[in-house]
């Protein structure tokens, strides 16, 4: 393979990442979820919830024991490589490896945030706990109903509770810092992103099976592509309304 072919493959890969197949109608679709697709969504939520529990546990122990987080980064990368090398049919093994990878990531995430952004471990831990509870809420709603509107309304209610709590902290002047406000804001934005990401999962599930383990670990990887694609769809909708 020459340099020109490598460059073309790289460009095609970037275009695929940012030009996703779903459109504005798919995002706004609130139809009831079919049984098969509903099962896929629940498996993704369950896998994501278990991963977040592992991440939170790893972060908690790292905070309590003051473990060397930089070494956990190596464990996380090793587990991630092992996960991608494990054959898809070995589902149980891949789930175990993914939980170990999540735990290793949780053990290192405090070190990473402190090193890059000078954010204290306790604030990182609060963010992880908030995300874990939020995903648990989405999982509960998905188990309870197949109605997309009810699932996403449950997420909206959780975001409202978060907003009210930070306002209450600000009024009562209890542990209200700029970092706490930023953490709560990031949490609300991430829960909104999960709603959009869920719509992509449902769209893809209509065309075949989804690897729920890989889907769990691509939540953060897909974030830039999904956000840019969503903004592009919103701007296109605004232009159509003006015309």
UniProtKB/TrEMBL annotation:
It is a multi-pass membrane protein. One of its GO terms (cellular component) is membrane. Its main location: membrane. It is found in: Membrane. The chain crosses the membrane at residues 43-65, 95-117, 123-143, 155-172, 178-198, 210-235. Keywords: Membrane, Transmembrane, Transmembrane helix. Belongs to the BI1 family. This is Bax inhibitor 1.
């Amino acid at each position: 393979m020459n340099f020109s072919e490598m460059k073309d493959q790289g460009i095609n890969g970037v275009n695929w990442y940012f030009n996703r197949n779903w459109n504005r109608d798919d995002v706004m679709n609130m139809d009831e979820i079919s049984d098969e697709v509903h099962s896929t969504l629940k498996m993704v939520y369950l896998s994501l919830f278990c991963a977040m529990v592992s991440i939170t546990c790893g972060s908690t122990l790292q905070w309590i024991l003051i473990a060397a987080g930089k070494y956990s980064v190596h464990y996380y990368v090793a587990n991630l490589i092992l996960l991608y090398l494990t054959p898809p049919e070995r589902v149980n093994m891949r789930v175990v490896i993914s939980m170990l990878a999540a735990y290793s990531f949780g053990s290192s995430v405090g070190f990473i945030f402190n090193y890059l952004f000078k954010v204290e471990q306790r604030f990182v831990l609060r963010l992880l706990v908030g995300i874990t509870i939020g995903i648990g809420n989405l999982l509960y709603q998905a188990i309870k109903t197949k109605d997309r509107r009810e699932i996403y309304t449950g997420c909206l209610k959780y975001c409202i509770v978060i907003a009210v709590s930070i306002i209450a902290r600000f009024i009562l002047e209890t542990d209200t810092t700029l970092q706490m406000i930023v953490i709560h804001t990031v949490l609300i934005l991430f829960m909104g992103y999960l709603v959009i990401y869920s719509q992509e999962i449902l769209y893809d599930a209509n065309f075949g099976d989804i690897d729920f383990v890989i889907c769990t670990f691509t939540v953060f990887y897909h974030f830039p592509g999904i956000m840019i694609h969503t903004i592009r769809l919103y701007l296109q909708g605004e232009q159509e309304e003006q015309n």
